[in-house]
Specification:
This protein has 457 residues and is an alpha+beta fold. It folds into 4 domains: 139 residues, Zincin-like (2-Layer Sandwich), CATH 3.30.2010.30; 132 residues, Neutral Protease Domain 2 (Neutral Protease, domain 2, Orthogonal Bundle), CATH 1.10.390; 84 residues, Immunoglobulin-like (Sandwich), CATH 2.60.40.1840; 72 residues, Sandwich (Immunoglobulin-like). 26% of the residues lie in helices and 33% in strands. Helix 1 packs across helix 2. The protein is elongated and about 100 Å long. Bound molecules: zinc ion. The site of zinc ion has 4 residues, from helix 3.
């Protein structure tokens, strides 16, 4: 509850509903605001100045007619009216996206203030101006930040990464210019890849600048949400986030609670993904080589990471081929140097990596000869692995007796065993590996051979 007494030329804006506005005996004015939902302390606010006030009507998806109440500087009123009318459509969209607007028994609103940017005070965002992106961002916080509040500063991306991403979604749904969504994603990727280090997880919660770091908390956090959507698929992503919001409504939340809900819906294990993208630093750079021979197109995809905290980012990757036709192929990239082959019925003129901008990454695509003439095919698997399935040991037969590095990775891409094989015929003990599917990768000077095997009981 806020009770504010002001000189009569001013108005007070605050959370919740305006219960009364009274003229006192001394001709000052008294404002009484009341908010009946649970609220985190930092979301309570009062603002007083010579506001103009107007209301936009918002028809929510369940038929509720709710006011969007706007307290604006008189000199900003014409701009404000354009901005808030546009924001009504974003509110209707967000209301249908995950869960309904959380404070529909009261209102949503804006109060203008003099700081840079905005602040997502519950049911009454404070904003410096009425631009599309700012209003969409602060509105998104009503779900991500206000209804569900990050449990610690380490988890601030649950507020800011999601608010950033929902601003992007508002541009995907209502492009503000030609290519708006593409431009938005490009700018976020460019920001993330402008520095080689830094994690989404806040590693120094005593620093306000680190907590609210634009590149890491907002942009990389937003791209992590975007990559989760790609990895899980739209159905599992939107359902998982919906379950997370419902389960943590009017409460605090942690990254591991979000993880539990996304894993439960998708059946995917996100431990490795979050170790790379939330706790780990930096980003991947892809070096994509391709070639075509008749109807066979071959790709060889290398990856380096910008920071030693992550050895490899296991990600689904998309490649677009086109000339007469356009085809987008998707591959699970689990090891650098991995090769993929695909049959196509047209001559490929051009290849583009990650055409829909799903990855916070850099890339380079070159055509090179991957179908050499002569007897040796560089990409043929040059190892024989048996038995498969195997319980105690696997035998690896190489095509030479030179030392070669090998990695065994589990299905999440985590290296579980590695070392050097020196001989033609080598035996590897796998008794200690849990039952499951594994990838065996042998690295020579200029090639990587990959085999899958199953560890049995
Ligand atoms: Zn924010």
């Amino acid at each position: 509850m806020s009770l504010v007494t002001t000189p009569s030329q001013y108005r007070a804006a605050s959370n919740g509903l305006l219960v009364s506005e009274q003229v006192l005996a001394d001709s000052r004015k008294s404002y009484h605001w009341k908010h009946r939902y649970a609220i985190a302390p930092y979301l309570v606010a009062i603002s007083v100045t010579n506001y103009s006030v107007y209301t936009n009507d918002v028809l929510l998806s369940d038929g509720t007619n709710m006011p969007m109440l706007n307290y604006v500087y008189p000199e900003s009123e014409s701009n404000a009216k354009i901005g808030t009318a546009a924001n009504v459509r974003v509110l209707q969209y967000f209301d249908s996206l995950f869960v309904a607007y959380p404070f529909k028994k009261e209102k949503y609103g804006h109060a203008q203030f003099g700081w840079g940017g905005g602040m997502e005070h519950q049911t009454m965002s404070f904003v410096v101006d009425y631009s599309w992106g700012l209003l969409a961002h602060e509105l998104a916080h009503q779900w991500f930040g206000d209804m569900v509040t990050c449990g610690s500063w380490e988890d601030i991306w649950l507020n800011e990464g999601f608010a950033t991403y929902l601003e992007g979604l508002s541009r995907e749904r209502f492009p503000q210019s030609n290519g708006d969504w593409t431009i938005w994603k490009t700018s976020k990727i460019n920001s993330v890849t402008s520095g080689a280090s830094g994690s989404v997880k806040v590693d120094n919660p005593n620093s306000v600048n680190r907590i609210f770091n634009g590149r890491l908390t907002y942009n990389k956090g937003g791209m992590v949400v975007h990559m989760l959507r790609r990895k899980l698929g739209d159905v599992a992503f939107f359902n998982g986030v919906r379950n997370y919001l419902n389960a943590r409504a009017f409460n605090y939340a942690t990254t591991s609670q979000l993880q539990q809900h996304l894993e439960a819906v998708s059946g995917q294990n996100l431990t490795e993904f979050l170790a790379d993208w939330y706790e780990g630093q930096g980003f991947p750079t892809y070096d994509v080589r391709w070639d075509q021979k008749d109807s066979a197109v071959k790709f060889k995809i290398f990856q380096t990471t910008s920071h030693a905290s992550v050895d490899f980012f296991e990600m689904p990757v998309d490649i677009k081929l086109w000339r007469r036709k356009e085809v987008i192929l998707s591959f699970d990239h689990v090891v650098s140097g991995q090769t993929f082959e695909q049959l196509v019925d047209f001559k490929v003129e051009s290849v583009r990596f990650d055409p829909n901008l799903w990855l916070a990454a850099k890339n380079e695509v070159t055509r090179e000869n991957l179908f050499p003439t002569g007897s040796v095919d560089l990409d043929a698997t040059s190892v024989t692995l048996f038995p498969n399935p195997a319980a105690n040991a696997i035998t690896i037969v190489k095509d030479n007796a030179l030392p070669a590095h090998y990695d065994i990775k589990d299905v999440n891409g985590k290296i579980v065993k590695s070392g050097i094989l020196n001989d033609f015929t080598n035996s590897l003990d796998i008794v200690d590996l849990p039952v499951g599917t594994y990838i065996f990768a042998l690295q020579d000077d200029n090639k990587i051979s990959i085999s899958k095997f199953i560890k049995a009981q």
